[in-house]
UniProtKB/TrEMBL annotation:
Residues 124-161 are annotated as: LID. Broad-specificity mitochondrial nucleoside phosphate kinase involved in cellular nucleotide homeostasis by catalyzing nucleoside-phosphate interconversions. Similar to other adenylate kinases, preferentially catalyzes the phosphorylation of the nucleoside monophosphate AMP with ATP as phosphate donor to produce ADP. Phosphorylates only AMP when using GTP as phosphate donor. In vitro, can also catalyze the phosphorylation of CMP, dAMP and dCMP and use GTP as an alternate phosphate donor. Involved in maintaining the homeostasis of cellular nucleotides by catalyzing the interconversion of nucleoside phosphates. Efficiently phosphorylates AMP and dAMP using ATP as phosphate donor, but phosphorylates only AMP when using GTP as phosphate donor. Also displays broad nucleoside diphosphate kinase activity. It is found in: Mitochondrion matrix. It comes from Pangasianodon hypophthalmus (Striped catfish). GO terms for cellular component: mitochondrial matrix. This is Adenylate kinase 4, mitochondrial. It comes from the Eukaryota.
Length: 226
């Protein structure tokens, strides 16, 4: 079997990780695993980890490292036959070290977006709490203002996306992420992309992955996901 491809996407809240991950999944057939989505699934299913994680997320805190790694590493083990892209994990150095001992990464994509742009995007971000679907009132608005496209239920704004909480949250992200970025830079697998628009970053991410992902693998992955 040809070698599988393992990638991580890093970036502050609002940097476009989810948006780019979806494009990577559909263009290259990688499985997209978002820690936030996986946590929400666990919360909905009331698993032990989900019940525990909920208490932290509700307070706007990060879920402790040992809870996150106990949740994510077994999920990755289930995907040993797939190429994947991880979004939202690892978020701390301890998580990155745990991931390191479980598998070898090929590429780390790091999104470097100006603070003003992040603030502007998150100010306009609305979510459907039950599903985690994300809208942006400018970039991808819902079909009907204030209402989820699929369920018709009302959208809400995260407390921590409101302007008062945002700056502190983004600053905290930077402190926690720096050692993770440094680790991947030292390993020589970090690729940093800086711009204010996802549409301008995407062509560079796409050509990086086209160069790194073996063609036969990309074809095989696409065949299994379509
Ligand atoms: N790797 C992680 N380590 C710790 N907590 C996590 C991790 N991933 C997600 N979480 C928790 O789940 C919550 C939701 O995560 P999610 O990534 O969906 O949203 P977010 O924090 O708004 O970030 P982003 O805007 O970058 O997607 C986080 O606020 C955090 O409490
Ligand atoms: N205006 C604008 N908005 C963008 C762009 N790329 C993504 N967005 C929107 C979509 C979301 O509402 C918000 C954050 O994007 P996301 O993909 O959820 O980011 P992340 O939090 O997963 O890193 O910003 C972009 O390039 N321009």
């Amino acid at each position: 079997m040809s070698k599988l491809f393992r990638a991580v996407i890093l970036g502050p809240p609002g940097s476009g990780k989810g948006t780019i991950s979806e494009r990577v999944a559909s263009s290259f057939g990688l499985q997209h695993l978002s820690s936030g989505d996986f946590l929400r699934e666990n919360i909905a299913a009331k698993t032990e980890a989900g019940v525990l994680a909920k208490t932290y997320i509700e307070k706007g805190a990060l879920v402790p490292d040992h809870v996150m790694t106990r949740l994510m590493l077994p999920r990755l083990e289930e995907m040993t036959r797939h190429s994947w892209l991880l979004d939202g994990f690892p978020r701390t150095l301890a998580q990155a070290e745990a991931l390191n001992s479980a598998c070898e990464l090929d590429v780390v994509i790091s999104l470097n977006i100006p603070l003003e742009t992040l603030k502007e995007r998150l100010r306009h971000r609305w979510i459907h709490p039950a599903s985690g679907r994300v809208y942006n009132m400018c970039f991808n608005p819902p079909r009907v203002q204030g209402v989820d496209d699929i369920s018709g239920e009302p959208l809400i704004q995260h407390e921590d996306d409101k302007p008062e909480a945002l700056v502190a949250r983004l600053r905290h992200y930077k402190d926690v992420a720096k050692p993770v970025i440094d680790l991947y830079r030292a390993k020589g697998i970090l690729h940093m992309f800086s711009d204010t628009e996802t549409d301008r970053i995407w062509p560079y991410v796409s050509s990086l992955l086209s160069a790194k992902i073996p063609t036969d693998l990309a074809d095989a992955q696409r065949a299994t996901t379509h």
